[in-house]
Amino acid sequence: MINLKINNIPVSVEPGTTILEAARQLGINIPTLCYLKDINEIGACRICTVEVKNAKGLLPACVYPVNEGMEVFTNTKKVLDARKKNLELLLSVHHKECLSCPRSGSCEFQKLCNDYGISDEHVYEGEKNEYEIDDSAAHMIRDNSKCVLCRRCVAVCRKYQDCGVIGPIDRGFKTHIGSAFEKNLGEVACVSCGQCIAACPTGALQEKDMTDDVWAALSNPEKTVIVQTAPAVRAALGEAFGLPMGTNVEGKMVAALRRIGFAKVFDTVFSADLTIMEEAHELVERIQNGGVLPMITSCSPGWIKYCEHYFPDFIPNLSSCKSPQQMFGAIAKTWYAEKMGIDPKNLVVVSIMPCTAKKFEIGRDDQAAAGVPDVDIALTTRELAKMIKASGLDFNLLPDEKFDEPLGIGAGAGVIFGATGGVMEAALRTANDWLTGTDTPAEKMDFSAVRGTEGIKEATYTVGGVTLKVAICSGLANAKKLLTAVRNGEADYQFIEIMACPGGCVNGGGQPFVPASVKNFTDIRAIRAKALYSEDEAMTIRKSHQNPAIIELYKEYLGEPGSEKAHHILHTSYVARKRY
Amino acid sequence: MSNKKAGVLFKDTPEQKKKLEEVIAAHKDQPGALMPILQQAQDIYGYLPIEVQTTIAEALDIPLEEVYGVVTFYAQFSLYPKGQYKISVCLGTACYVKGSGSIYDKLQQVLGIGGGECTPDGKFSLEACRCVGACGLAPVMMVNDEVFGKLTADDVEDILAKFGA
To answer: Largest CB tally within 10 Å, which of A219, A230, B66, B138?
Structure first.
């Protein structure tokens, strides 16, 4: 152990511990801006600067390891002045429109300026770089005039997602974040995952806000506006209203959506169950008829776009099933619209997603079962929070309400889609019953090997005489590893689940912002996932094929899973895309 | 910001291609391979267009953006070839106080390119230089080996016209 003193308080820590981590053990929070644990440890912003006895100059606490006998001071006048000066210099080139900035209140830079008492934001007024706002991508905008060059977005794009389509360009005062040859985000092989937005401490990166379109639809008397909410949204929305991370707010979310004015409040869990029916059928068919294996899930539009850009040779492996978001829209505009006597042209389907890639997905080709787009507007969890606030609803005082029927009925299997391994587990629950011809309760099945937040998991199950080798992976850098192994013949799976975001949808790029000060010391993926697993455990119907609304849908409309009608409405196609 | 997307049409010879492959193979497995590869690639081609940077990125299995970030960080690397007519404007002390800055600005405006760049037709490239030893003629610019002195910004268009602009 290493013994040191921080602000004259003795502490013992493991060798290799940084000053930042050691201080935390004493309840001292050293501020950071560029630091993201494990992936962006570059000591660039100098906000975490501290004084160390006998050291030359101030040291960056985030990357500096402790030494025996070290004496650290985290809040001397010298330290506070240095932090303040660094903030003032960053402010001098910052586009200060904090009142109208969507990150006002959640901006880490703004918080630091408040905490360190910046009283004159114009103290170093001088030359600024002029940047055009890049709104070329379907899902987001980049405004470099609000960038603090922390490179957190660059780190997640390269290290979590293996895309690396953004990075620092030029040097010195001209340094800016962009893509090679100054191409716009819409022109490069960006997969729309939005992890860069979630990593950004300021308003430089934002999703494309579509809430105005929703308000316009809601006030149009000719339109019937219905909404679906993805499972991961209920596990995180509460954070935007001060509730502890991992609080499941399903009931209040439904109540809020109803009060905002949606004609019906439905659940994407319904179409997650539908996905299982179609996907499990497709898998069995591929195994029995010598189809392309391993089959890979197609729920995550970030993953799909990654596959199309970076691994186009795996396109035949992708399940042809539309994602749950799109299946919902397709069923709403066919079966449901017919049932209710609504012209699909006047039915507006809004989706609330933990995801920014869903904004890209709604505009893909071959996603229009009724001749009109399956889904009209995809909002993130953050945009929903914004709408709830604009409605003047006191979220925490809302009653718990239930989803509408029939498209609001879901099984536990669909709920856990929001966590990595959830789709696999849901599929295995159904496959087990189908292959053994039994009705095995979910709690009697042990699928613990597919749960948890590790980047790559694998398992082998023998059910009804069939041995199934499966793999689950989240984060596209992990997908690269897994697919490379499959390509080289080092792995032989029948079924693979891939989610673009590390930990799955609960950690999606559209979820409420979590500041780095929390993210660095908390596993948000596991805490949010727990909310979904608890909901599943408490449900009576936990298997997709037992969802009564799904049974009714097949009986009344689709026939069998994989029928011609199901194919027309619920399946789609993919296209190889350029990498450069 | 200049338009970096509209590059000059790239043409390479089989010899250049082969040389680049050899350079990559020689360095590929070393740590820090990118710098020496970029330096030698620039020796081969005279500049580092997107085609060359893409080849390097693919061979090293790193993002194109990472290659581009390094190329734009160091002044020794150029994204543009030299034009058929290489224009240099002296920004040395004597020329600068005599107003060569406005000549340089005018050239950028007329040619539609920034310093260090080349027009998309490959005809003119523009760069700033320090003293050419003709301070008596300040302000001075050169087109290939021909010197033009005692200039004003109004002379720029006539000079370019001589070279077919």
So the answer is: A230
Are residues B91 and B63 located together in one domain of the fold? no
Clarify whether residues B152 and B97 are in a common domain: yes
Look at chain B and report how many structural domains it folds into: 2
- For residue range A119-151, what is the model confidence (pLDDT) as tens digits? 988 889 889 999 999 999 999 999 999 999 999
**Residue in the block written with tokens 């037992």:** A546
Structure tokens at A5: 């003193």
Three-state DSSP at A240 gives: helix
Give the integer Cα–Cα distance in Å for A316 and A94. 47
Both B156 and B104 in a single domain?
Answer: yes
The predicted-structure confidence for A321-365, as pLDDT tens digits, reads as follows 999 999 999 999 999 999 999 999 999 999 999 999 999 999 999
Mean pLDDT of A412-435: 95
Contacts of B4 in chain A (CB under 8 A): 181-182
Torsion sign, CA atoms A320, A323, A329, A334: positive
Give Cβ neighbours of residue A307 (< 8 Å, ≥ 6 apart): A296, A314, A315, A318, A574
CA distances A21 to A13, A64, A82, Å, are 9, 10, 21
Tell me the C-alpha distance between A249 and A548, whole Å. Answer: 24
Do B122 and B61 fall into the same domain?
Answer: no
Q: Taking CA atoms, what residue in A is nearest to B5?
A: A181
Whether the full predicted model's pTM is greater than 0.90, yes or no, is: yes
Segment A110-120 shows an average pLDDT of 94
**End-to-end Cα spacing for chain A:** 49
Do B107 and B147 lie in one domain? The reply is yes
Mark whether B51 and B113 lie in a shared domain.
no
The residues with which A177 forms a beta bridge, in sequence order, are A168
B27 phi-psi bin (left φ>0, alpha ψ -120 to 50, beta other): alpha
A to B CB pairs, distance under 8 Å: 48
Beta bridge partners of A18: A65
Domain membership of residue B5 (yes or no) is: no
> Could you say which of B53, B73, B93 is where a domain stops?
B73
H or E segment to which residue A519 belongs: helix A516-519
Looking at chain B, which residue has its C-alpha nearest residue A169? B69
Put simply, the answer to whether B62 touches A164 (Cβ < 8 Å) is yes
Task: Please state, in angstroms and rounded to a whole number, the distance separating the CA atoms of residues A194 and A355.
Answer: 7
Please give the residue range of the domain that contains residue B35: 14-73
Note the ipTM here.
0.91
CA-nearest of A177, A38, A56, A36 to A48 is A36
Q: What six digits make up the tokens of A433?
A: 């019953």
Distance, in Å, from the CA atom of A294 to the CA atom of A428, rounded to the nearest integer, reads 15
Note whether B121 and B152 are same-domain residues: yes
Q: Are residue B64 and residue B116 in the same domain, yes or no? A: no
* Residue from the list B1, B3, B64 with its beta carbon closest to the beta carbon of A180: B64
Q: Tens digits of per-residue pLDDT, A481-518? A: 999 999 999 999 999 999 999 999 999 999 999 999 99
Cis, bond preceding A221 (omega within 30 deg of 0) = no
- Residue A169 near chain B (CB below 8 Å): yes
Neighbours of A8 (CB within 10 A): 8
Q: Is residue B1 domain-resident?
A: no
Is there a contact between A148 and A90 (Cβ–Cβ < 8 Å)?
yes
Q: Walk me through the domains of chain A, giving residue ranges and CATH numbers.
A: 2-75 (3.10.20.740), 120-206 (3.30.70.20), 212-570 (3.40.50.1780)
Chain B, nearest residue to A183 by Cα: B5
B72 close to A (CB below 8 A):
yes
The answer for residues whose C-beta is within 8 angstroms of residue A577's C-beta and 6 or more apart is A189, A305, A308, A309, A312
Task: Say if A480 is an interface residue toward chain B (CB within 8 Å).
Answer: no
DSSP letter at A141?
A: E
Residue-level pLDDT at A448: 86
Last residue of a domain, which of B24, B46, B73? B73
